[in-house]
Every structure is written in structure tokens, then in C-alpha cells.
Amino acid sequence: MRVTIRDLKRMKRRGEKIPMITAYDYTSAQLVERAGIPLILVGDSLGQVVLGYDSTVPVNMDDMIHHVRAVVRGSERAHVVGDLPFLSYQADAAEAIRNAGRLLKEGGAQSVKLEGGHAHAETVSRIVQSGIPVMGHIGLTPQSVNQLGGYRVQGKSIDSAARLIGDARALEEAGVYAIVIECVPAPLAKMITERVYVPTIGIGAGADCDGQVQVFHDLLGMYQDFEPRHARRYAEIGEAIVSAATAYAHDVRDLRFPTGAESYTMNGKVIEALSEYSANPV
Ligand code: KIV
């Protein structure tokens, strides 16, 4: 049985912190699952770290479904959240419901996430009423990078902080089961966390959120293009891969790979018959 939204809400009530990591394929999902992570996000950040785009804007529904399916196949217990990509939910609620439904029906996710606060509360409410659990996402919302003018910390002034508190409340009223808070000052994230009943999951939002989310590639030192201040590298897998691939290339060039132990043998009689055959083909 996978972790449910009720389990996540219970974790908040008990003061149990919720670790969440992104994953984008079968293997990364298996590894994250083995670490006992209860919540996996198939984020549209895959646009950057997997597909090589310079933002999440180009990611589409087919990309998301493709990756959500792989993550669901690679996990058993974790609750898998599928991100709704840019323009899959903004135009109208009916389209939002259809696309959210695709992440569950075709992808196998247990819930969806979408970016935005008050302005999207009605859409969130319609999706939730259709039986699809929704995780909100406020603060820095990367799909709006062109409107925000870059990846900046949000909620630093009284007005914008008050707006974010209002956004969190509007999402909670609309029925979200959790809210991601991205890149906001820690004291503001703490206030939001204390003012809503649903778990808050922070990224660059300080230690007082109910949980934390990190991008798989940031956590493991696998993405060189951008290193956010809020990411902590727990391993240098990128460097380990480069040195392994370099050692492999040396071994191939210097005839150290493969050895006999890494090759398949053949019965001597078959080799003899084959040599005769290739010397005198019929
Ligand atoms: O797409 C993503 O990975 C996200 C997280 C950064 C929260 O939305």
C-alpha cells in the first residue's frame, strides 16, 4: 500500500518531518524508494535536469506522463506526485481536470501538483472535486519565470508576504492536501506553516516547513548548469560518473577491457568446425 494523503496529514499533526525528493525514471525511483522516502515528486524540473531545456516552460503533458509512468514502475510504497506542466491547467478548469486525470489514469500517479495561489484556487477546487488530490505550490513558481523576471526569492516585502499567506489559505480552502513553498524567507514559511492545517513542503524556505523537497540531481551533484543556494549536495555522483567513464575509456583504448572473465566462451569443437567452415564456405 502506498503512502496516502491521510498519512501525510497525520505526519504533520504528529510533528513528523516529511522528506520528499524528485525522481524522473525507473532507476532513480527505485533508489529513492530504497531510502524510505515517502513522497516522490515527478517534477517538471525534468525539463532542465533530464531534457536540457533552460526552463520548465517547454515541458508538455506527454513528457510528464512518460516520466511519471517510469517512476511509478520503480516505486512501491512512496506516494508519487505528478507535476502539471505549464499551460496544462491555466486555460480552463475542464482542461485542468482532464490533464490532472491523465497523470493518474495514464501515468499511475497518486496526486498532482500545480503552481499558483489565489488565482488558481477555483481550478484546484474543481480538480479536487473530481476526486484528484492536489498539492499546491507557492512562492517562486518556476513556470512563471518570464513574468517573475528570473528565479528570485519571493515574499520579501509586506505586500508580497501577505499575498503569499493569502495564497496558502486560498489553496487550503480549495482543498489541497499539501503546499510546496519555494524560495521564500524562512520566517514567512514558518508563519504560513503555522497558519495552515495541511503539510507545507519547503525548498529554499527554511527549516520550519513540515517537510523538505530537493531535486534529485542537486542532492547528488549531478547537474552542473545551476547550483541553487538552498541545495545541499549529499554526494558527488556527477564526478564519480565522469571518473568511471574516463577509466572505462582508458581501459578500452589500452586493451584492458574486456578481459576473459568479461567475455563468453564457446565449445572448442564448435570453434574448430566454424574455422573450417569459414575457411571453405559452401
Ligand atoms: O519541478 C520540481 O522539481 C518542483 C520542485 C522544485 C518543488 O516543482
Describe the structure.
The protein has twelve helices and eight strands. α5 crosses α6 and α6 runs parallel beside α8 (about 160-175). The longest helix has 17 residues, at about 160-175. The protein folds into two domains: about 5-235, Alpha-Beta Barrel (TIM Barrel), CATH 3.20.20.60; about 240-280, no CATH class. About 45% of the residues lie in helices and about 15% in strands. The model has no long low-confidence stretch (mean pLDDT about 95). With about 280 residues, the chain is an alpha/beta fold. It starts with a helix and ends with a helix. It binds 3-methyl-2-oxobutanoic acid (KIV). 3-methyl-2-oxobutanoic acid (KIV) binds near residues 44 and 83.
